[in-house]
Structure formats: structure tokens, C-alpha cells
User: What shape does this take?
Amino acid sequence: MPTKAFVNLPVKDLTKSVAFFTELGFEFDPKFTDDNATCMIVNDGVAVMLLVEEFFGNFTSKKPCDTGTHAEAIIALSADSRDEVDSLVDRALSAGGSPSNEPIDMEGMYGRSFQDVDGHNWEVMYMDPSVMGQ
Assistant: This one.
């Protein structure tokens, strides 16, 4: 059986975070949603748990990092085309996200990045299979 991955992210305002990611086209599993958390479905094997910061504290003795000054991770998503990269990142920026790094555009790879409404870093990458040897 394939392993599933669940990324857990602290958020300041769950409603605002859900609205942001809904604008990007993500859906949420109502079985794992309440006032403290929601399960954002990325695909059949990956989900992102958005947890209100106080609730997030139940799962670790560490404080969430200040995303204004520190990065705890970069969550990378694959895309099927350059247009898909641009579409997702443009929607993120229009929905209240902010730019992160300069675009990556090198032989066979194209990517852009953004920060969500809580300052978490996201990267969207397209890797051309004809160039990457896939």
C-alpha cells in the first residue's frame, strides 16, 4: 500500500486560510474539519492539515515559527505544464498570497513560488519529461 503524506501547518485564521486555498481550487474533507482544523486534499496520497495555532500546539512542544522571518519548510507541488504553474501562482497572488522567490526557468524546469496568507512557502514546478529523461 502506498504511504500517504499529511503536512501539518499552523494557521492564524482557519476561515481565511480555507478561503485562500479554495480560491486555488483545493477541496477539504469534511470528516476532518471543525473549528480547529481542516484537511485540505492535494491528491489521493497527500493532504495538508491546516490547524489553528493553539490546536497545533497539541501536537508538538515547539512553538510555530514566525513565518515573517523564518521558513519551516517549502511545500512543493508539481504541475503538468508551465501554464498550470502560472495559473496556480497567479490565483494565489490574487487571493491574498505574496510573492516568494524569483521564477526558476532553466532547461526542462519551470517554477514559481508564493507565500500563503500565513506566510508558509509554496513552490509550483513543471518538469518537462522530454528533457528530464522521464
